[in-house]
Amino acid sequence: YKKVLNFIATAKSEGATILTGGRRPEV
What we know:
Blueprint: H1 2-13, H2 16-19
C-alpha cells in the first residue's frame, strides 16, 4: 500500500496531473 502512495507522490512530482486530466486518481 505504501508503494501506491509513493508512486502517486512520485508521479505527481513529475506532472501526473496532466496525465490524469488535472484531477486526482481515486484509489
